[in-house]
Design a protein that fits this description.
The chain is mostly helical. It is 85% helix and 0% strand.
Length: 190
């Protein structure tokens, strides 16, 4: 169930695009409301167990409730804008989490790094802080573009950016960061 929900979440822009091509806003909203309600209760159940997620249980619940509110808006008012704001909500939430972790250390990237290497050297701690700032900038940029596409673009442009280009940009940033990390590690190991 968790795998299906994850796949649906990742494919959200494509689900919306093809859903709106075949069905009304109300039907697409209703189906996504049901999916996200299941996800919400699955998160609630998972949060009762050990939570190794980078987001706190409160952040997960808050994001889920906000998404549900936007989907409910689309359902009630038969307006696609609530469907289109999911990428905006996710990017804003991630930007807030990354920003919060910078002002209340350790930063998210340091927390993730410590999962594999508990004792990070000082240069690695500094590096993880910088990477957290880079990802924060990415989420702000991506959220702004997602907002623009939701408010001022047609569904094709919205889907292209949020369902393809944003993922390519994320992969490029992840890959680029990995290559830089290898060089930083090599420079500091010598």
């Amino acid at each position: 169930m968790k795998i299906i929900l994850t796949i649906l979440t990742l494919l959200y822009p494509l689900v919306v695009f093809y859903g709106l091509a075949e069905f009304s806003v109300r039907w697409v909203s209703l189906v996504l409301l049901l999916v996200f309600l299941v996800r919400f209760f699955a998160l609630k159940k998972n949060n009762n167990n050990v939570n190794k997620n980078i987001l706190s249980p409160l952040a997960n619940k808050s994001i889920s409730l906000l998404v549900l509110a936007f989907l409910l808006y689309s359902f009630i008012f038969n307006a696609d804008i609530g469907l289109l704001f999911y990428p905006v909500i996710v990017n804003c939430a991630l930007a807030l989490v990354f920003f919060y972790s910078l002002i209340n250390p350790p930063p998210i990237i340091e927390r993730l790094a410590r999962l594999t290497q508990e004792n990070l050297p000082p240069h690695a701690v500094l590096y993880t802080r910088t990477v957290t700032k880079v990802w924060l900038g990415f989420f702000i940029f991506n959220g702004l573009v997602a907002s623009y596409t939701a408010l001022f673009s047609d569904i094709e442009v919205w889907t292209l950016y949020n369902g393809f280009i944003a993922y390519i940009l994320m992969a490029l940033l992840f890959s680029g960061e990995y290559l830089v990390r290898l060089r930083v590690k090599e420079r500091n190991d010598n």
